[in-house]
């Protein structure tokens, strides 16, 4: 609804205001306003505009100049601004409250050019609003900044509320943009007023319905969101809930909170007996509430985050219980119908690390998703599930929105996802993740022929912990199952034959960082076989040498392996050629070589300042060789971005 022609826009504003409940009964309304249905004044005329420019010593920006040619000022019209834009009331601001010094004093060495420009606005600004009581908190001033022009000659416009102690000024690209924002503010203030119906509200409500149907059809998602955003900013009641759902899906389960990216507030008014609110919107609001670091009491008392005045104990108790489930990562998203069945299956897949299959399961079923009512357009509660939320990336959230669902007119025939079958990730990706926040140390054990639950019992103390990501795990070890690669699936090519269980099923335990926890011992291989890797890249100080440890064990006994530590190599057992550390780490020195040549200059530099660091290429080749020999793989997305069950270890 962006407007570039002043007259129709201002006539619409006048009509909407005059038709609003109570407007005609106000004692301060000029009779000419009621008669002419016009909140403005006669046009300024070219001579008056030129006189103003001569007085100011600068040409006026285009949209303000054309505004004066339409009306010489504008009445408050339901906003906090007094008469704005009248030629005789326009003056240089002069920074009467010394705000420029305050804002410039708050800048630091990292301030951007844009921040510096805005901080200097106060001393050069042009004030368009009439003189105000700047101590009043509900007043606002309109300022134009000639020092911040755009390519069209427009000056940045500011709405400064509450005088010296007010909020940070709101910036707009032009005077027209600011006036349109004030028009939306007027509509927003009356959005819940009974009887507030006019041409604008009817158009906006039609846009909302158009956007809702387009979203369910999977058509023009961005266009639909634009319509909902405009309607929401104008205070239309239906728009907020629909906009929240679309923006949440487009951010994905790992997206930022409501304060990021200019998104709508995730907290939507509702009641606990409404399944859309209780099962979809409130879990998402609780998640964002916790991400922002707020506590339980604030969740219950905030009117934006609870359904009404918070006095209904029947609503308070389940809301608080839900918040705790989200906080403890025990919340389980459920949905009706076949889509709900698919969600349950996907949750089990994601639970043990098969996030690719979990995504395909959800995506294939979303065409059959069933909404709770007309105000429900997407399964947003899915994003609050501790296991499935991380699976729904921003790209995948968009895919779900673009899939026709809930009887959308262009719904797909079979609902299947057109995507290639996911391939095993292998192990080499661990060496590729070297930039923060990826850790510089990790350890894992792969055990053949046992379930993740059994592996957890073998290495852990106590029951499985709630699903956690890398940052939430602390010193706990995360557990899962791994997709088999294309190598020797039963390990027979690893030397010593296949004395373990047959088949290609492996489970893993994985830990990140240098937390002092040793990798599980060979005892986890009892009755089967295991592969253990422990890597610390080193090189930062003498106290942190590079380490790469590999061990293959069968039935509780180690069979072969090696440890490269600070440039020296220790070997045991009959290591197959493919895993020969002499080839994988050519710069490392065997212990016996170091002892035999102790007085030479060709030994390890482990005693020098600093420490020996793993070569990233050597690390990659070693991991790749292990994956090839044993036919194993670790799920990259699940480990780096997803949540997995964990166990505490000694």
TrEMBL record:
<feature type="domain" description="Knr4/Smi1-like">
    <location>
        <begin position="45"/>
        <end position="92"/>
    </location>
</feature>
<dbReference type="Pfam" id="PF09346">
    <property type="entry name" value="SMI1_KNR4"/>
</dbReference>
<feature type="compositionally biased region" description="Gly residues">
    <location>
        <begin position="492"/>
        <end position="505"/>
    </location>
</feature>
<dbReference type="InterPro" id="IPR018958">
    <property type="entry name" value="Knr4/Smi1-like_dom"/>
</dbReference>
<feature type="compositionally biased region" description="Low complexity">
    <location>
        <begin position="603"/>
        <end position="613"/>
    </location>
</feature>
<dbReference type="InterPro" id="IPR037883">
    <property type="entry name" value="Knr4/Smi1-like_sf"/>
</dbReference>
<feature type="region of interest" description="Disordered">
    <location>
        <begin position="594"/>
        <end position="617"/>
    </location>
</feature>
<feature type="region of interest" description="Disordered">
    <location>
        <begin position="480"/>
        <end position="528"/>
    </location>
</feature>
<protein>
    <recommendedName>
        <fullName>Knr4/Smi1-like domain-containing protein</fullName>
    </recommendedName>
</protein>
């Amino acid at each position: 609804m962006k407007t570039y022609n002043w007259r129709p826009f201002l006539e619409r504003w006048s009509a909407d205001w005059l038709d609003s409940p109570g407007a005609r009964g106000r004692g301060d309304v000029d009779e000419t306003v009621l008669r002419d249905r016009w909140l403005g004044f006669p046009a300024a005329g070219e001579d008056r505009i030129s006189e103003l420019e001569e007085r100011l010593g600068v040409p006026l920006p285009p949209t303000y100049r054309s505004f004066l040619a339409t009306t010489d000022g504008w009445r408050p019209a339901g906003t906090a601004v007094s008469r704005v834009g009248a030629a005789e009331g326009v003056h240089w601001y002069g920074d009467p409250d010394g705000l420029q010094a305050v804002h410039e004093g708050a800048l630091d060495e990292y301030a951007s050019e844009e921040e510096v420009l805005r901080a200097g606005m106060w001393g050069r600004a042009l004030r368009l609003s009439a003189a105000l009581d700047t101590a009043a908190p509900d007043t606002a001033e309109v300022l134009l900044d000639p020092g911040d022009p755009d390519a069209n000659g427009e000056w940045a416009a500011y709405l400064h509320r509450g005088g010296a102690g007010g909020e940070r000024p709101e910036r707009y690209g032009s005077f027209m943009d600011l006036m349109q924002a004030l028009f939306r503010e007027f509509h927003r203030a009356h959005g819940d007023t009974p009887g507030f119906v006019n041409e604008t509200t009817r158009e906006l409500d039609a846009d909302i319905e158009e956007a809702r149907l387009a979203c369910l059809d999977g058509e023009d998602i961005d266009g639909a969101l634009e319509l909902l955003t405009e309607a929401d900013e104008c205070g239309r009641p239906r728009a907020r809930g629909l906009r929240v759902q679309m923006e949440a899906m487009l951010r994905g389960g790992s997206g930022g909170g409501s304060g990021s990216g200019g998104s709508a507030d995730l907290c939507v008014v509702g009641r606990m007996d409404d399944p859309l609110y209780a099962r979809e919107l409130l879990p998402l609001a609780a998640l964002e509430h916790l991400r922002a670091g707020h506590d339980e009491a604030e969740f219950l008392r905030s009117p934006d985050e609870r359904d009404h005045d918070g006095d209904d104990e029947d609503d308070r108790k389940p809301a608080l219980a839900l918040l705790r489930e989200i906080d403890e990562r025990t919340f389980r998203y459920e949905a009706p119908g076949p889509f709900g069945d698919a969600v349950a299956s996907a949750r089990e897949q994601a639970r043990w690390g098969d996030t690719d299959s979990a995504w395909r399961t959800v995506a294939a079923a979303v065409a059959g998703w069933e909404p709770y009512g007309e105000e429900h357009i997407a399964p947003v509660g899915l994003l609050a599930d501790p296991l499935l939320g991380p699976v729904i990336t921003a790209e995948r959230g968009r895919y779900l929105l673009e899939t026709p669902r809930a009887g959308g007119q262009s719904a797909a025939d079979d609902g299947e996802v057109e995507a290639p079958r996911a391939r095993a990730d292998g192990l080499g990706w661990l060496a590729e993740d070297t930039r923060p926040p990826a850790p510089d140390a990790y350890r894992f054990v792969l055990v053949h022929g046992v379930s993740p639950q059994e592996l957890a019992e073998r290495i852990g103390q106590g029951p499985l912990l709630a699903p956690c990501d890398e940052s939430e795990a602390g010193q706990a070890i995360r557990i899962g199952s791994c997709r088999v690669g294309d190598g020797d699936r039963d390990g027979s090519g690893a030397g010593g034959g296949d004395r373990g269980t047959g088949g290609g099923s492996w489970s893993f335990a994985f830990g990140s960082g240098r937390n002092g926890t040793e990798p599980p011992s060979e005892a986890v291989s009892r009755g089967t076989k295991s592969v253990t890797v422990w890597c610390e890249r080193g090189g930062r100080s003498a106290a942190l040498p590079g380490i790469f440890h590999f061990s293959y064990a069968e039935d509780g006994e180690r069979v072969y392996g090696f440890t490269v530590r600070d440039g020296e190599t220790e070997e045991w057992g009959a290591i197959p050629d493919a895993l020969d550390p002499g080839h994988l780490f050519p710069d490392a020195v065997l212990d016996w070589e170091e002892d035999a040549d102790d007085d030479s200059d060709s030994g390890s530099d482990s005693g020098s300042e600093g420490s020996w660091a793993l070569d990233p290429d050597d690390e990659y080749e070693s991991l790749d060789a292990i994956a090839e020999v044993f036919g194993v793989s670790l799920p990259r997305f699940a480990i780096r971005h997803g949540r997995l069950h964990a166990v505490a270890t000694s």
